[in-house]
Design brief:
The protein has eleven helices and three strands. The chain is mostly helical. It has three domains: 8-40 and 144-237; 66-138, no CATH class; 249-305, no CATH class. Strand 2 (273-277) and strand 3 form a beta hairpin. Helix 4 (84-94) packs antiparallel against helix 5 (99-113). The longest helix is centred in the first third of the chain and has 29 residues, at 13-41. The chain is rod-shaped, with a radius of gyration of 31 Å. The protein binds heme C (HEC). Heme C binds next to helix 3.
């Protein structure tokens, strides 16, 4: 076991700047990831805003709502010239979305209000509402995320996030805190991420697991955020003496000795105290442990500020 492990007060200012830039960038990236999540899944259930219901529909699908219904009850509603047409469309969907009724009732509405945007030639990424084939696709019941889609997202997610969590954790372990808390804290985001991904697959069959998706996702975000904040705080604002005051005298003296040796000083134990020799060979006597610690932390601070 080393004399003591590396802590934030051991690292240079350059390393602090590098760590902080990384942590802040990850924090901003995470905020954008949340915004992306919001815009991808919100209003799937027809109501504005993100809810557990939206997550259920995303992974499990919806037995009573189709994409077309969700759209005309949500973000596409203002495009309908007459609100009464909404009922016509919903009735058509519920009666089986047949082709004959489509030509008679639905096509005129869509041609008037929707095809300005929903034409492949204009916007190939939007559902094609100019033909029955395109319309019936969004009028079909949604079955949620497909297995190939989940597998694709899982592997990207696990590879990418594992790297991010690993580097955040490596920085965080330099923090000064209770070791048990630290050991648990570095593991939590990984466990939460695995639980989150597992819950996607389970939600596909059991919609109630959408709550686990949300809870595990939140836990990952919170634990990652806590690691980032603690690291930033301790790196810049927290100056702790490297040797706990309550430690036995022998431990405290040994720790001082280790620090001083790193800085190029030599400490010799005498029957009534210590003799300190600086890198240039100058000597001085230290009588008490408190004196030794004061010199030791003073030199360390000076050393930190000089690189
Ligand atoms: C001004 C252009 C415009 C008009 C007019 C318009 N839409 Fe859209 N529509 C969009 C855009 C842009 C999106 C993609 C929105 C997104 O993914 O957030 C979209 C998405 C959709 C979707 C897919 C939603 C999903 O599940 O991904 C449906 C269904 C839809 N519109 C139906 C309609 C209907 C029905 C009308 C006519 C009442 C209509 N739209 C009129 C621009 C338009």
């Amino acid at each position: 076991m080393p004399l003591r492990y590396r802590r934030f007060y051991d690292i240079s200012v350059s390393e602090r700047i590098l760590n902080s830039a990384f942590l802040l960038t990850i924090g901003i990236g995470y905020a954008f990831a949340l915004a992306n999540l919001y815009y991808t899944h919100q209003a799937r259930d027809g109501r504005r805003g993100l809810s557990v219901q939206d997550v259920m529909i995303a992974y499990h699908g919806s037995t009573h709502r189709t994409r077309l219904e969700v759209a005309i009850n949500g973000i596409m509603e203002p495009n309908l010239k007459y609100k009464s047409d909404k009922e016509v469309i919903v009735k058509w969907i519920h009666s089986g979305a047949g082709e004959a009724e489509y030509h008679a009732l639905i096509a005129p509405i869509l041609n008037r209000d929707c095809v300005v945007c929903h034409t492949p030639a204009i916007n190939p990424n939007l559902p094609d509402l100019t033909r029955y084939a395109g319309v019936s696709e969004v009028a079909a019941k949604s079955s949620g995320a497909t297995l190939p889609a989940l597998i694709r997202v899982s592997h990207i997610h696990l590879f990418g996030i594992a790297f991010i969590l690993y580097f955040i954790g490596r920085i965080f372990i330099l923090a000064e805190m209770n070791v048990t808390v630290k050991r648990i804290t570095v593991a939590i985001p990984f466990v939460a991420m695995l639980l989150d991904v597992a819950a996607w697959y389970i939600t596909k069959s059991i919609p109630g697991f959408a709550y686990v998706v949300v809870a595990a996702g939140a836990l990952m975000g919170i634990s990652m955020g806590a690691q980032i904040l603690v690291s930033l705080y301790q790196m810049w604002f927290h100056r702790v003496h490297p040797i706990p005051a309550g430690a036995p005298a022998g431990t405290r003296a040994r720790a001082c000795c280790g620090i001083l040796a790193e800085l190029g000083y030599e400490l010799t134990e005498l029957p009534d105290g210590w003799e300190l020799r600086d890198p240039d060979g100058a000597r001085c006597r230290l009588g008490t442990l408190e004196e030794l610690e004061t010199v030791c932390s003073g030199l360390e601070l000076k050393h930190q500020q000089s690189y």
